[in-house]
From TrEMBL:
GO cellular component annotations of the record: plasma membrane
MF annotations from Gene Ontology: xanthine transmembrane transporter activity
Sorted UniProt keywords: Membrane, Transmembrane, Transmembrane helix, Transport
Subcellular location: Membrane
Keyword flag Acetylation: no
Protein name, UniProt field: Uracil-xanthine permease
Signal peptide residues on this chain, from the entry's feature table: none
Topology of the protein relative to the lipid bilayer: Multi-pass membrane protein
Length: 387
């Protein structure tokens, strides 16, 4: 029991990191937030079982499917058809997992040079900058600054027992400050929820158009998954694309999406937000992520507790987001330095430039498009001596 209590704050950090984005997707698309939390928790646990606990990643709601989900759930009032579309997404994941296992990831990896990996890792963090600063922190800058300052101070100068939970310290400090400022409306949020709320599930309803609109998007999220794994490799200093293998990672993500679809949730994907927590705390235990998954399942069922977390002001989330997303961006730069990428070569400089601008500038699927653009430039330009 004492070991569980020691790990609880570490797991809570991951819950706070993923919560906002995970529940935002169902709010935008008309799906059930409760079902989404339950699905993300179960999906993460299944993912860890498939990857044998060797990939400390959390799986939450994918933003790539917001448009088709909104179309079928909110406009057509046909959530069952949306479920069918998501099932087709999981099938695409399974097919590509099989392809990777047959062909071998080494061949895939050789086709992706460090000059592409580095900036792709960076834009995963930088693409979230607008969310952290403009959407969240700007709502109340003083709250965001207090939150950020508390997290940074804890990580650098805090006692050893607190240095492993700087994100949680920042969130609690920012929350208490916001509460004192009268910016927390906990009573209203709690009054609108019951103690126990069971998710609303939807049975699949055959629809070819839904399948055709969602299945191709799986290619986008798989590229993002690959980018997230590159980030994770840099953080934990171990190549998870080799052990347990990218095929297992794809299969686990596909199975998580299938489970989520059947439970009435959105597609699942690995979360950059939680990678930022790993980079900050330097605690890579998969048990902690699994603990966060269990908490997410409970939150999906216990309405009052979920209401408390939902009452956290956006500025608090923005304050810790500045730190988390910035850590991911810095990891990409570190990767290029350690790989000794020569940016005095024009070809390398062009690859990095194009990836950065497309990845940050494209409003949707920018990471995937930027990755493809960088690979095309690298392999099609005549100079093949770049690192």
């Amino acid at each position: 029991m004492s070991a569980v209590l020691r790990k609880l704050p570490l797991s809570l950090q991951h819950v706070f990191a993923m919560f906002g984005a995970t529940v935002l997707v169902p709010i935008l698309t008309g799906l059930s937030p409760g079902a989404t939390l339950v699905a993300s928790g179960l999906g993460t646990l299944v993912f860890h079982a498939i990857t044998r606990g060797k990939v400390p990643a959390y799986l939450g709601s994918s933003f790539a499917f917001i448009a088709p989900l909104t179309l079928y759930v909110t406009r057509h009032h046909a959530p069952g058809q949306a479920v069918t579309g998501l099932v087709s997404v999981s099938v695409v994941y399974f097919l590509f997992a099989l392809i990777v296992r047959v062909v071998g990831f080494d061949r895939v990896r050789r086709a992706i040079p460090s000059v592409v990996v580095g900036p792709v890792v960076s834009i995963i963090g930088l693409s979230l900058a607008t969310t952290a600063v403009t959407v969240d922190a700007s709502t109340h800058w003083d709250v965001a600054i207090v939150t950020l300052a508390a997290a940074v101070a804890c990580a650098i100068a805090g006692p050893r027992t607190l240095r492993i939970i700087p994100i949680l310290v920042g969130i609690v400090t920012g929350y208490l400050y916001a509460l004192a400022r009268g910016l927390v409306h906990l009573g209203q949020a709690a009054a609108q929820t019951k103690w126990i709320e069971f998710p609303t599930f939807h049975a699949p309803e055959w629809n070819l158009a839904a399948m055709a609109s969602m299945a191709p998007i799986a290619l986008v999220t798989m590229v993002e998954d690959l980018g997230h794994m590159f980030v994770l490799n840099e953080i934990i200093e171990r190549d998870v694309t080799r052990d347990p293998g990218f095929g297992s990672i794809l299969f686990g993500n596909g199975l998580a999406t299938l489970i989520s679809a059947l439970l009435g949730g959105p597609a699942e994907t690995t979360y950059a937000e939680n990678l930022g927590v790993l980079a900050m705390t330097r605690n890579f235990s998969s048990r902690i992520i699994q603990g966060a998954a269990v908490i997410a399942i409970l939150l999906g069922l216990v309405g009052k507790v979920s209401a408390v977390i939902q009452s956290i002001p956006p500025a608090v989330v923005g304050g810790v987001g500045i730190l988390l997303y910035g850590m991911i961006a810095a990891m990409g730069i570190r990767h290029m330095i350690e790989a000794k990428v020569d940016l005095t070569k024009t070809k390398n400089l062009i690859v990095v430039a194009v990836i950065f601008i497309i990845g940050i500038g494209a409003p949707q699927n920018g990471i995937a498009i930027a990755t493809v653009a960088g690979l095309l430039i690298y392999w099609l330009l005549p100079d093949r001596t770049a690192s």
